[in-house]
Amino acid sequence: MLTTITMFILAYLLGSLVPGYWVGKIFYHKDIRDEGSGNIGTTNSFRVLGVRAGITVLVLDLLKGTAAGLLPLLFHSNINPMIIGLGAILGHTYSFWIGFKGGKAVATSAGVLLAYNPPFFLMVSAVFIITLLISSMVSLSSMIGFGFATVVSFYFHDWILTLVAIALTIFVFYRHRSNLSRIKNGTESLVSIGWYYHHKKSAQK
Predict the structure, then answer these.
(1) Closest to 131 (Cα-Cα) out of 156, 149, 113
(2) CB of 124 closer than 8 Å to CB of 165
(3) Would you say residue 101 has pLDDT above 80?
(4) Which of 51, 69, 92, 149 is the most exposed place for a label (fewest CB within 10 A)?
(5) DSSP 80
(6) Each residue of 60-76: pLDDT tens digit?
(7) Where does it primarily localize (predicted)?
């Protein structure tokens, strides 16, 4: 039990790291909490800081989750990595570095999945990327990716993966409720990649 608690705390500390906030402050002299959606995650990093910073934040947030998911291996524990990974997701969403606030934990959740089941991660990532390349919306891509993960998890006959996928999908949709309203109204912010972004730019000329 003590080992499990230790791993969960370490996972929370890993998840609490805020690369989006730090990259903005150190390299761009911006506090992304004061711009765009005010979120410290990947989407707002793309929106406020640009593609290079957005990709950097995406990778770092992903690695946080992966590192947390690998803790049971490091501690020679048989506990399911998805359970320990929840600590990182909690840390990203409620980071003590910024007053127990945070992002929507999409990339960090994906990182946990990478540590637990790489083939499943690649399937979900493919759906995310395809959706992004069509819609130019990270928020929509995230929700569709997690929805896909929940549906496909049933075919892996892994009840822990399925339960966590369902819980994370509900959580991701809840955290994106304002994005859903903007998508419905056609006012959701776009990243500068993907068909829809370039289509919209062409239509405005």
Answers:
(1) 149
(2) no
(3) yes
(4) 51
(5) -
(6) 999 999 999 999 999 99
(7) membrane
